[in-house]
Amino acid sequence: MNTGARSNLFQNDLVVVNMGLASFGENLRRTGTRVVQVDWRPEARGNPEMLAALDLLRGTDGELLPEITTANTEAVSRLLKARPTITGIGRAIDLIPEMKKNLVLHAGPPVSWERMCGPMRGAVIGGLIYEGLAKNPDEAASLAASGRIAFDPCHHHQSVGPMAGVITASMPVWIVENTTFQNRAYSTLNEGLGKVLRYGAYSDEVIQRLRWMERVLAPVLAEAIALHGPIDLVNLIAQALQMGDEVHNRNRAATSLLIRELAPHLVSTKAGADKVAEVLRFMHTNDHFFLNLSMAACKSALDPTLGIANSTMISTMARNGTDFGIRVSGLGNRWFTASSPKVDGLYLPGFSEADAAPDIGDSVITETAGLGGFAMAAAPAIVQFVGGNVSRALAFTRDMYEITLAENPAYRIPTLDFRGTPTGIELTRVVAEGILPVVNTGIAHREPGIGMVGAGLVRPPMACFEAALQAFSKTFRNVTNPQEKR
């Protein structure tokens, strides 16, 4: 810089570009200096181990190596090609692979009875009473702790469950088939809000409702579906997004569309007017009725992406109220877990954060598939339920484009000029950018039997993704450079 330029620099008004800590810029603003704040963060938060792992997966141009890019293209292509379709309803023991009378499926990664949170323990107790394996809560708790009951994640059995996620042998389940790849996913029927099994309630009222669902609701719906024929869930979800749902916490439009689809066939069943009225009334008063279907749809869409060698796409996110876990496509069935966080949200009158259980449930499968929190821009009304404002909802969705591989052409967001939802969470982008997936979710009381106490927003622990990245880079290095194994 010549002498004249230096002189002019101090004669003119300064405009300072501040990178990093905003407090540095605030000090300058107090002197009257114009400051432009740049939201800059060091890659991978400057963590040398993560930077080394990222370097192993990148070429000299800084992009992911071709074999990883090709695998990711295949993984996200399978996700976008998925065609989840309702084909029926049946009993868990007749449909779910390896289901047994003494097996209880639960949400999230594996967890033992000793480590289960309050709501999940309550749901297990209720499930054992419902199955007739125990007569009362004390007997059920003793049985659960005895070793005579087996526990396994829903995800290990082509299934998903909201909140506690408990599925037992006699429960009716939706049959959702991904017709593109001929794989199935199963989920229970949604009980509604209040004191329900998925929040850990096990009173007589809860058990009686479950038995009504088994004996009345499921058979009537199954007959109506048989009369209707397969129901395309992609079309239904796409319409619901246009109507203000994101199909995780807001399912009012999707539930209404499902009722509309089934109503003509419900009245044509042999169930009788009284039972059909009961079924329609139950669905009408339960805005969350579609939630379990959206979960099964996303599960069926994501399962074909698990096990693609060299892919860094996230195939599963789930939580059990104790641990938050993820599975990476190229690493198969291996879980990477960290402590489940608390949800930042709004609480119902009389409750506070002190009452809340940690984040729980398989419903985060919707975010994994590019819906839920990833589609909040399509559902601005949801911010009244989970906290925040419309601009935040738009910002959340925009942020998710930074960590995903594609946009879903079927699921479009009107407020973003019909841009497709951000789809296919990519592991290295999450760690490198420091942007965690956003999840909107319900909040369960930490004690069993009380139920829902609020709703809000949560982010997975970064530790899950960092551990997965380390494992992936090590596996990838050993496969591509086998001499390093010695």
Overview of the structural elements:
The protein is an alpha+beta fold. The chain folds into three domains: 3-40, no CATH class; 48-67 and 307-485, v583 domain like (v583 fold, Alpha-Beta Complex), CATH 3.90.1700; 80-298, Enterococcus faecalis V583 domain (Enterococcus faecalis V583 fold, Alpha-Beta Complex). The protein has 17 helices and 18 strands. The strands form six sheets. A five-stranded mixed beta sheet has the order 6-8-7-3-9. Strand 1 (15-19), helix 2 and strand 2 form a beta-alpha-beta unit. Helix 8 packs across helix 10, helix 9 crosses helix 10 (252-266) and helix 10 (252-266) packs antiparallel against helix 11. The N and C termini lie far apart (56 Å).
Mean pLDDT: 92
CATH topology of the largest domain: Enterococcus faecalis V583 fold
Named CATH architecture of the largest domain: Alpha-Beta Complex
Structural class, by secondary structure, is: alpha+beta
Structure summarized in a few sentences:
By secondary structure, this protein is an alpha+beta fold. It folds into 3 domains: 3-40, no CATH class; 48-67 and 307-485, v583 domain like (v583 fold, Alpha-Beta Complex), CATH 3.90.1700; 80-298, Alpha-Beta Complex (Enterococcus faecalis V583 fold), CATH 3.90.1710.10.
